[in-house]
Amino acid sequence: MGERADSAERTTVVAIDGPAASGKSTVSREVARALGWVYVDSGALYRGITWKALRAGVDVRDAGAVQKLLDRARWAFPVRDRTVVFTVDGEEPGDAIRGPAVRESVSDIAALPCVRAFVSARLREMRRYGPLVMEGRDIGTVVFPDADFKFYLDADPVERARRRARDLAAMEGAADLAQVRASLARRDTKDSTRRDAPLRVAADARIIDSTALTVDEVTARIVAAVRAGKGTA
Ligand code: DC
User: How far does residue 110's CA lie from ligand 1's centre (Å)?
Assistant: First the structure.
């Protein structure tokens, strides 16, 4: 038991942080695939909690009510196809966590210290799954400050809005670029100004500006850096 805990402590983590629509998800999934490691989308946990709260009629700004929900629901994080999936009370929210209701409330949920403590603890437990590629906002700063590999992915706000609008158009049929840009800016502001674990660049993270790079190019840079053992600045 002690030995297992020790080896879990030493599990390699590739932390990939950055703002919304910076290309983190696609890149992180590809990096995990290339390395054969387990992929974790930490934003999906915040989104899943938001989804459950909205469904249960819980006010997403009411820390006491959200804490009760965290205590009462059964949360599970099994691995499927080398990807951590999320179930609550036996149900998998699926694409509902990408919908407009969750999108507009998730930053409020993510600002609650009780939610951050809950999610961070679950994320740290995932080391038992072996080497991880984990994307988020605070993975290299708060969740795994000792991660061997830290990347901060950024892109120009106009390019990020274009990418997000393209994704939304594919999912929801249409997307207004100006509205998408405003929604991203709102989320950026909330995510980077909250008191607890705001979005910021870890001092030792390698910054990659993906504005003019393809997914393959960003993936290749990260994989090469990890293979060379050079993932922090
Ligand atoms: O990466 P995403 O867009 O799916 O994240 C959804 C929200 O969750 C986002 O507004 C910020 C929050 N989040 C966070 O606060 N910390 C993380 N590690 C990941 C996501």
Answer: 7
Find out whether the beta carbon of 140 lies less than 6 Å from any atom of ligand 1: no
Q: 38 and 77 in contact (C-beta within 8 Å)?
A: no
pLDDT digits (tens, 9 = 90+) for 116-135: 999 999 999 999 999 999 99
pTM: predicted TM-score of the whole model, two decimal places: 0.92
How many other CB atoms are there within 10 angstroms of residue 174's CB atom? 7
What whole-number distance in Å separates Cα of residue 76 and Cα of residue 71? 13
Residues 6+ positions from 106 with CB-CB distance below 8 Å: 43, 46, 47, 50, 187
Q: Is 116 in the pocket of ligand 1 (CB under 6 A)?
A: no
Q: Is the pLDDT of residue 37 over 50?
A: yes
The best mutation among 42, 49, 160 to test binding of ligand 1, ranked by most ligand atoms within 8 Å of the C-beta, falls on 42
**Chain segment 83-109, per-residue pLDDT in tens:** 999 999 999 998 899 998 998 899 999
